[in-house]
Amino acid sequence: MSIAEENARLRAQIEALERKVAHAIRQPSNAERDLISATHARADSVARLYGTTASQIVPGEDSLQYRRRLLAPFAKHSERHRTTRTESIPADLIGVVEEQIYNDAATAALDSASHTPGALVPIQERDTAGRLVTRFVGDIATAFAPFMTPGKPARIVRNPPSDRW
């Protein structure tokens, strides 16, 4: 291979990499930023019910890919979409599927029977004054059993005989 051929090959590789980098650092429009923010806020509100947070957007990812990726961890909590491949949801249906999955996941998170036995999950919410309030959902009896004193047996006598008292 001559030097000219190798230079041409290297230039082609550099141009291909520059195209990839340009796509990765592309700035989203204001409308797309708003959509990304709303998507993150919705996913984060559901994720907090499980004691986690939603991930941020990855450079080079568009809003549709981001929405699909955020849905993946919550799809297992939805009976309708348990087997749905979130990465292949069409753009015109993602809003409907997204709402169903997030609603089902939030309902499942608030159901104490769906949590691991013996575990408490903190749920952080803001009240109307803006204060952060933490509630716990899960198996309270098992979680606090080590801190409880054993009960003492007792007998209640409702009508004691008059000669004893």
Written description of the protein model:
With 165 residues, the chain is mainly alpha-helical. It folds into two domains: 28-110, no CATH class; 112-150, no CATH class. The protein contains five helices and two strands; from the N terminus they run H-H-H-H-E-E-H. The chain has helices spanning 3-24, 30-49, 63-71, 94-110, 140-144, and strands at residues 120-126, 132-138. Strands 1-2 form a two-stranded antiparallel ribbon. The model has no long low-confidence stretch (mean pLDDT 84).
* Major beta sheet, strand line-up: 1-2
* Helix/strand structural class: mainly alpha
The biggest beta sheet reads: 2 strands, antiparallel
Approximate shape: elongated
SSE sequence, one letter per element:
HHHHEEH
Percent helix range? 40-55%
Radius of gyration: 28 Å
Q: Average pLDDT across residues?
A: 84
What distance separates the N and C termini?
115 Å
Taken together, the total number of domains comes to 2
How would you concisely characterize the structure shown here?
The protein has 165 residues and is mostly helical.
Present the secondary structure layout.
Blueprint: H1 3-24, H2 30-49, H3 63-71, H4 94-110, E1 120-126, E2 132-138, H5 140-144
Antiparallel strand pairs: 1-2
